[in-house]
Fold this sequence. Notes:
Blueprint: H1 3-11, H2 16-24, H3 26-34, H4 43-56, H5 58-61, E1 63-65, E2 68-70, H6 79-99, H7 105-109, E3 113-120, E4 125-134, E5 140-146, H8 155-170, E6 179-186, E7 191-196, H9 199-217
Parallel strand pairs: 5-6
Antiparallel strand pairs: 1-2, 3-4, 4-5, 6-7
Amino acid sequence: MTDDVYVTLAEDYVSKSRLGTYEQCPFKFKLHYVDGITVPPNKFMLRGLAVHDFMENFHANVKIRKEGLYIKLPEGVSEEVLGHVKNVIGFEKKRWEKSLEKDYPLKYFKPVMVETKVHNHDDKLFGIVDRVHLNYDDELVVLDLKTGKYNSKNYDYYRQELAFYKKLLDGSLLLKKPVKYGAIYFSGSDTLIMESVSSQQVAILTQRIKEFRKNVMRQKFAPRPSILCKWCGYKEHCNVNHFD
């Protein structure tokens, strides 16, 4: 592998996934993004794909009737996925009921953006945005779906994910004004968190991206053992302690 490959990778567009993978384990990042080694999706990834697919198509399939919302449940999915789907439907019903308090409810219920590939060319960022909505004060909210359960210990991590989406969208010029709020809905625990994304969080993110680019350029790919090694799909390519 020539040094040019690492220079190109360091200067390439950064996604939330790339940044997160490197910070979780630089060696895992190298195996995937440098060596091109792929692993089959695990059950958590498959669950996430199924629930994301339902949420992505929700507004295309939902019927709005006088008595409320109506949408068919997906067929051929596991009971676990069905539980997540029912939570998503409940979440959307609450949003619709709140929207009815406004003069133009569809304006606030229907998303501005759904499952969209976004590029910020100035900052060289890219990613897929689950949703963007208008809140009830006409401010933009970026919404991310997670199929896990909310964990208060990870709140700083969640804030940084929302900062990434704000930086990505604000630099993309796809929206008429900046994103003000970030939100995450956890279908595993039926939990919604939302807050204003601060300039401080964006500044922290910017520094993380700078460090990431510098470390990739310097080819710093040492393994970073943690409890997460137990579920890593790259275990067979790594000889460190996997915490089994």
